[in-house]
Amino acid sequence: MRKITKFNIILAVGVFGVFLAAGYFLLPSVLGDTVYPLKYADFISKYSMQEGVDPALVAGIIMQESRFNPNAVSSVGAKGLSQFMDGTARTMAKRYNLTSYDIFNPETAVMFCAGHVKDLLINYNGDVDAALSAYNAGGGNVNVWYKLGMPQNYPSRGYINSVKKYRDVYASLYPNELGITNSKYDTTVEIKTEKKPVFSAFWGSIFQRFSIPESDK
């Protein structure tokens, strides 16, 4: 009787160990497929490398904007994977010398996203928070607070934090798929070297009172 009990215990422990091992190896994949899906990784890797921007950041933006739904349309008319308004999409088409384009095409949307991220990083001297804020809410208020040297006042702070969280997750879960070989925060864009002026808290508060209301996207 004791031998049978001991055998059952050993068997149960062995089965439990197998389940633990399976969970250890399979759980990240399951989480990635359900909680943090990744689609169009080839396009993200290709155009991020072409533009010299962090592919995990691009993936994080797309996750936040559309959860990788190429047919997404927001309540204000932002379209596609990267949720571009028509005006921004036309600007990016000119940047790539395209006479026609389809913003609902996943490759086009990813290309425009990577290019827009690069342009914003260049414009804001590599400041990721400023670039993300401008991506989400436009450059109006961002320009004011960037020039004042007061990043804590950038609009869309929740959006910024969410995208950066997704960036970290995608860099951790999908480094091979995204072609990440260096630091997950690596960017090779040539940024401006101008220094932001520093203003006193008094003048910052004055500008804050007259800043442009943040628009919803």
Automatic annotation (TrEMBL):
One of its GO terms (molecular function) is lysozyme activity. It comes from the Bacteria. Signal peptide: none annotated. GO terms for biological process: peptidoglycan catabolic process. Residues 44-147 form the Transglycosylase SLT domain. This is Transglycosylase SLT domain-containing protein. It comes from Candidatus Berkelbacteria bacterium RIFOXYA2_FULL_43_10. The lineage of its organism: Bacteria, Candidatus Berkelbacteria.
